[in-house]
Amino acid sequence: MNTQKNVNTSRQLDVLGKALNSQVLIKLKGGREFRGSLKSFDMHMNLVLNDAEELEGGETSRRLGVVLIRGDNIVYISPG
What CATH architecture does domain 3-79 belong to? Predict the structure, then answer.
């Protein structure tokens, strides 16, 4: 078992834990971007966002409400 991978995953989840109930910006494979309040996540980095909105060119293109984003589609997560 690769303990380095487990340590890195643990640190990533710690960072997400500190971002709970805060605004985050999510970029997905294919270039789509979403912004919302991070409500919850799991060990696969699947995310639930409240008050989510899809962005195009940095501007809100549509408001979505509550969304679930699969972790395997995420390119990056940034405080928003």
Answer: Roll (2.30)
